[in-house]
Amino acid sequence: MPRVLGRSVALAAVVCTVWRAGEAAAQASAASPRDAERMVAEGSSASGAAKAVTAALHPQAVLVWPGAPVAVGAEATRLLAAQSALDSFRLTLQPLALELSADSALAASWGLAIATPRAGAGAPKTGRYIGIWARETGPWRLTAILLSGLLPPPAGAVAAASSTRKPPLSSRGPAGPFATADLQFSKLAGDSGAGIAFERFAAPDAFLLDGQGLLVRGPKAIGALVTGPASWKWHPVAGGASASGDLGWTVGEAVIAPPAGEGAPAYSKYLTVWRRLADGSIRFLTDGGNPRPGP
């Protein structure tokens, strides 16, 4: 279920290049999102994954970390600082897709995240990532990132992010059309089931990674992955968009409730990448998520 596991780019080619992740990204002026992500990767070899990701963050970046609330700005920095275990790993990002906005100022990439012990002992851990990069007047900065399946948060990590619920994302402003699409998506899931909603709102070339890291491609396959009797509800609390209006993203909070008497609801959060199609409709390219604390 992508909203629990995690919730697509014109896939011109599957990018098989392995980018190693790091700290120099915040200072270097990368010519492209690929350069910025590669420099983040390289920095993690020297200083560890948590410090490398922190160095690349925009001041108001959104962090979607397993087991914690949605963290924004200083909350995101504190939450990463609490991940001291992550600094013992070198982070390798293996992107499967990269989407660049028409104005070349916003980019999204997603794929596999591999954490390898820096000391050389121990087996690598494989998870998933979605990264949103933006460029204003300086270098590319990481404005939202989801990491999932690498390491559980250590004790106290959740407290590093505010437990205060985030207000819903406004339907006004640059991200407004994407927030509206997300809410329509959620309404259809509530009215007709997650399978129908995911199939209808997936872009023709959408794909996501399931809990085993397997590629699920196309609206029908994505819809089939989430079809079931559970009741899905969600809403966005953060988002952004390119000035050209063709690429956007939303982060939000979700609740997936099983049928009555079959267990407790699952509380999760998500990061979704959206594209405006040629006909003006807005459809998602990929989606990922992970657990969050309940109310």
What report would you give on this structure?
There is one protein chain. By secondary structure, this protein is an alpha+beta fold. The chain has two domains: 2-160, Nuclear Transport Factor 2, Chain: A (Roll); 176-291, Nuclear Transport Factor 2, Chain: A (Roll). 23% of the residues lie in helices and 35% in strands. The protein contains seven helices and 13 strands. The strands form three sheets. The chain has a seven-stranded mixed β-sheet with strand order 1-4-5-6-7-2-3, covered by helices on one side. Strand 8 (207-209) and strand 9 form a beta hairpin. The longest helix has 17 residues, at 176-192. The two termini are 21 Å apart.
Summarize the structure.
Helix content is 23%, strand content 35%. The chain has 295 residues and is an alpha+beta fold. The protein has a seven-stranded mixed beta sheet with strand order 1-4-5-6-7-2-3, covered by helices on one side.
What structural keywords apply?
295 residues, alpha+beta, Nuclear Transport Factor 2, Chain: A, 23% helix, 35% strand
Query: What's the CATH topology name of the largest domain?
Result: Nuclear Transport Factor 2, Chain: A
Estimate nothing, just give the exact number of structural domains. Answer: 2
Strand residues, percent: 25-35%
CA gyration radius, whole angstroms: 18 Å
Indicate the CATH class of the largest domain: Alpha Beta
Helical stretch tally: 7
Task: Output the helix-strand order.
Answer: HEHHEEHEEEEHHEEHEEEE
- How would you describe the oligomerization state of the chains in this entry? single chain
CATH architecture of the largest domain: Roll
End-to-end distance, in Å?
21 Å
Range of helix content: 10-25%
Uncertain runs: 4-29
Strand order within the widest beta sheet:
1-4-5-6-7-2-3
Count of strand segments: 13
Major beta sheet summary: 7 strands, mixed
